[in-house]
Amino acid sequence: MINILFRKKIANRPFKRSSGQMVIEMILVMTVLVAIVGALRGTLQSSEAFKTLVQGPWRVLSGMMVAGNWNSPDVAINKHPALGQNHGSLEGTSP
Question: Does residue 56 lie in a domain region?
Fold first, then answer.
Protein backbone atom coordinates (compact mmCIF):
# COMPACT_ATOMS: atom_id res chain seq x y z
CA MET A 1 0.00 0.00 0.00
CA ILE A 2 2.77 2.41 0.85
CA ASN A 3 4.47 1.62 -2.44
CA ILE A 4 1.33 2.57 -4.40
CA LEU A 5 1.01 5.91 -2.58
CA PHE A 6 4.69 6.66 -3.13
CA ARG A 7 4.32 6.00 -6.87
CA LYS A 8 1.38 8.40 -7.07
CA LYS A 9 3.38 11.17 -5.41
CA ILE A 10 6.26 10.69 -7.84
CA ALA A 11 3.88 10.62 -10.80
CA ASN A 12 2.46 14.00 -9.75
CA ARG A 13 5.97 15.56 -9.65
CA PRO A 14 7.74 14.44 -12.85
CA PHE A 15 10.41 17.17 -12.76
CA LYS A 16 11.45 16.67 -9.16
CA ARG A 17 14.36 14.40 -10.04
CA SER A 18 15.68 16.63 -12.84
CA SER A 19 15.45 19.98 -11.08
CA GLY A 20 19.11 20.92 -11.76
CA GLN A 21 19.29 19.64 -15.31
CA MET A 22 18.44 23.01 -16.89
CA VAL A 23 21.16 24.75 -14.89
CA ILE A 24 23.75 22.16 -15.90
CA GLU A 25 22.73 22.40 -19.57
CA MET A 26 22.95 26.22 -19.55
CA ILE A 27 26.40 26.06 -17.96
CA LEU A 28 27.44 23.60 -20.68
CA VAL A 29 26.07 25.86 -23.43
CA MET A 30 27.87 28.89 -21.98
CA THR A 31 31.11 26.92 -21.71
CA VAL A 32 30.86 25.82 -25.34
CA LEU A 33 30.11 29.39 -26.50
CA VAL A 34 33.05 30.80 -24.54
CA ALA A 35 35.32 28.16 -26.07
CA ILE A 36 34.10 28.95 -29.61
CA VAL A 37 34.51 32.72 -29.11
CA GLY A 38 38.00 32.20 -27.69
CA ALA A 39 39.02 30.00 -30.62
CA LEU A 40 37.63 32.47 -33.17
CA ARG A 41 39.33 35.38 -31.46
CA GLY A 42 42.68 33.59 -31.47
CA THR A 43 42.32 32.59 -35.10
CA LEU A 44 41.28 36.04 -36.28
CA GLN A 45 43.97 37.73 -34.23
CA SER A 46 46.73 35.53 -35.63
CA SER A 47 45.56 35.90 -39.24
CA GLU A 48 45.10 39.67 -38.86
CA ALA A 49 41.66 39.43 -40.46
CA PHE A 50 40.39 42.50 -38.61
CA LYS A 51 43.36 44.49 -39.83
CA THR A 52 42.53 43.77 -43.48
CA LEU A 53 38.82 44.40 -42.89
CA VAL A 54 39.54 47.86 -41.51
CA GLN A 55 42.51 48.98 -43.58
CA GLY A 56 41.06 48.18 -47.01
CA PRO A 57 37.97 50.37 -46.77
CA TRP A 58 39.75 52.94 -44.62
CA ARG A 59 42.29 53.71 -47.36
CA VAL A 60 39.52 54.62 -49.80
CA LEU A 61 37.47 56.41 -47.16
CA SER A 62 40.43 58.52 -46.05
CA GLY A 63 40.98 59.58 -49.67
CA MET A 64 37.39 60.81 -49.74
CA MET A 65 37.88 62.70 -46.48
CA VAL A 66 41.16 64.29 -47.59
CA ALA A 67 40.39 65.22 -51.17
CA GLY A 68 36.80 64.31 -52.02
CA ASN A 69 37.79 61.46 -54.32
CA TRP A 70 37.26 57.72 -53.93
CA ASN A 71 40.95 56.80 -54.23
CA SER A 72 43.80 56.35 -51.82
CA PRO A 73 44.94 59.65 -50.27
CA ASP A 74 48.13 59.95 -52.33
CA VAL A 75 46.18 59.62 -55.60
CA ALA A 76 43.14 61.59 -54.42
CA ILE A 77 45.13 64.65 -53.33
CA ASN A 78 46.12 65.28 -56.96
CA LYS A 79 42.44 65.25 -57.98
CA HIS A 80 41.29 67.74 -55.32
CA PRO A 81 38.78 70.24 -56.75
CA ALA A 82 40.80 73.18 -55.43
CA LEU A 83 43.74 72.25 -57.68
CA GLY A 84 41.74 72.73 -60.88
CA GLN A 85 42.03 75.79 -63.10
CA ASN A 86 38.92 77.56 -61.88
CA HIS A 87 38.26 81.24 -61.83
CA GLY A 88 35.46 83.34 -60.51
CA SER A 89 34.11 86.61 -61.79
CA LEU A 90 31.44 88.98 -60.59
CA GLU A 91 30.56 89.80 -64.17
CA GLY A 92 30.31 86.17 -65.33
CA THR A 93 31.57 84.84 -68.61
CA SER A 94 30.88 86.49 -71.92
CA PRO A 95 28.60 84.57 -74.29
Answer: yes
Q: Classify residue 95: in a domain, yes or no.
A: no
Q: Is the pTM of this model over 0.85?
A: no
57 located within any domain = yes
Q: How many domains does the chain have?
A: 1
Q: Does the pLDDT of residue 86 top 70, yes or no?
A: no
pLDDT in tens, 53-81: 778 788 888 888 888 888 888 888 888 77
- What is the extent of the structural domain holding 61? 50-83
- What radius of gyration, in Å, describes the C-alpha atoms of the chain? 35
